[in-house]
From TrEMBL:
InterPro entries from the UniProt entry: ACMSD, Amidohydro-rel, Metal_Hydrolase
Residue ranges of every copy of the Amidohydrolase-related domain listed in the record: 5-255
Protein name listed in UniProt: Amidohydrolase
Naturally occurring in which organism (per UniProt): Ramlibacter aurantiacus
GO terms, molecular function: carboxy-lyase activity; hydrolase activity
Keyword Transmembrane helix: no
Coiled-coil segments: none
Gene3D superfamilies: Metal-dependent hydrolases (3.20.20.140)
Length: 294
């Protein structure tokens, strides 16, 4: 089984030639929203990430550049270039910037770029969902075949609208659509909002950062019923494991074993899809054959 982690962060500290946004420098904690589990403060470089993957038995990973570091994808693309076959990148892209449409047209020509990850958990990004400013973006991504990952808690209604208008656009909902500051019973409402999206064939779900949404220790049994509901609705071909390893409250190995051994509702024959096959198909990232490898 080829294990492909659907979300890891690789980043570097602020430096003059690659600056972080001023608002990120003013906040010392790398955290999505108050109450969310924070990422570790120290950057994770390519070498460390590969070492962590090797120790946990993870063959490949999708790098998602973290929003606090800004919209540059250079660090992530450099990691993918340094370790060919181990990484692809879901790059950041700002559709509100001048010339964005022209840049989007050539975005996927960058080696190792697999798509775009959009974050809508803070203003002004969440305002784009309603004011029509980026309607062209969804249209062009559909036409160009650019898969999208969406961090979009509380706005799954917008995902439904986009999915219906653009049936050829692959949409991946990050972290089960959960609010980052929710735990255990608080997650039920988020899952209720997520499940209707299973009716759209172009909507996929990342079961990523799961241990961050419970106060229970491994094996996080309180979340099993929620995960089963999502799995039963979306099926193994639209349901993908991911770690978001830099903010886990458990070890990387435990995050892997949780899905491999503790969720008995996932059929053993479906594990290759859940643990990498599904996200690889969405991103058109060919999996190595039986004689290939690291």
């Amino acid at each position: 089984m080829i294990l492909t982690d659907a979300q890891v962060h690789v980043w570097e500290a602020h430096r003059p030639d690659r600056p972080w946004p001023p608002e990120s420098l003013a906040s010392p904690q790398f955290v999505a929203v108050p109450g969310a589990r924070p990422h570790r403060a120290e950057p994770i470089g390519a070498d460390e990430m590969v070492s962590m993957m090797d120790a946990a038995g993870v063959h490949r990973a999708v790098i998602v550049p973290p929003s606090p570091a800004g919209d540059s994808n250079l660090c992530a693309l450099e990691a993918a270039r340094k370790y060919p076959g181990r990484f692809v990148v879901m790059g950041r892209f700002d559709p509100s910037q001048p010339g964005a449409r022209d840049r989007l047209a050539v975005f996927m020509r960058q080696p190792h770029m697999a798509g775009i990850r959009m974050t809508f958990h803070k203003p002004p990004w969440n305002e784009w969902l309603d004011d029509g400013r980026i309607d062209w973006f969804w249209t062009d991504c559909e036409r160009l075949g650019i898969p999208l990952m969406l961090l979009i808690p509380g706005r799954l209604d917008a995902v439904a609208r986009i999915a219906q208008r653009h049936p050829g656009l692959a949409l991946v909902v990050d972290h089960l659509g959960l609010h980052s500051n929710h735990r255990d019973a608080q997650c039920h409402g988020d899952i209720d909002a997520l499940l209707p999206l299973a009716g759209f064939a172009n909507v996929h779900v990342k079961a990523s950062a799961v241990p961050c949404y419970t106060d229970e220790p491994y094996p996080f049994r309180a979340l099993a019923p929620l995960l089963r509901r999502v799995y039963d609705h979306f099926g193994p071909h639209r349901f993908s494991w991911g770690s978001d390893v830099s903010r886990l409250p458990c070890s990387y190995r435990q995050a892997v074993e949780h899905f491999l051994h503790e969720l008995d509702f996932i059929d053993r024959t479906d594990l290759p899809s859940v643990m990498g096959g599904a996200i690889s198909r969405v991103l058109r990232w060919a999996q190595p054959g039986p004689t290939d490898g690291r």
